[in-house]
Design a protein that fits this description.
about 140 residues; mainly alpha; about 50% helix; disordered N terminus; Kinase-like_dom_sf; transmembrane receptor protein tyrosine kinase activity
Length: about 140
């Protein structure tokens, strides 16, 4: 995987995630009868105020990383949409996947800071990912 720019990586992640997500059964019911939103990937400010920013994209990236390390589980799979909204707006975050390295989960937590300005920025995430890619590989026991 070649990483050329934050916009490039985010575009590839978004497109891949959108295509692999299927018909999005986890979308919330229409808001005001018009719009369906992917609440399981949204930060509190997007759920409560429909505010979408680069910082809300960073939150969603954290959720996508979680999906990768759970081999494609749906975020908050055990909860109904209204329960997901309650969890996110109350400050709960997804648990660390069993096979997720600590430094990757720490990155997820950095993406899930409640205050948007406290979240990691995309340039820092790119640097962290590049550093991890250059490190000695740690092999995961996916059968254990």
């Amino acid at each position: 995987m070649a990483i050329s720019s934050p916009k490039g990586i985010m575009g590839k992640i978004f497109i891949t995630h959108f295509i692999t997500a299927g018909c999005c059964p986890s979308l919330s019911p229409p808001v005001g009868g018009h719009t369906m939103l992917p609440i399981r990937w949204m930060p509190p400010e997007s759920i409560m105020y429909r505010k979408f920013t680069t910082e809300s994209d960073v939150w969603s990236l954290g959720v996508i990383l979680w999906e990768i390390f759970t081999y494609g589980k749906q975020p908050w799979f055990q909860l109904a949409n209204n329960e997901v909204i309650e969890c996110i707006t109350q400050g709960r975050v997804l648990e660390r996947p069993r096979l997720c390295p600590k430094e990757v989960y720490d990155m997820m937590l950095g993406c899930w800071q409640r205050e948007p300005q406290q979240r990691l920025n995309i340039k820092d995430i790119q640097k962290m990912l590049l550093t991890m890619m250059k490190a000695t590989p740690v092999y995961l026991d996916i059968l254990g």
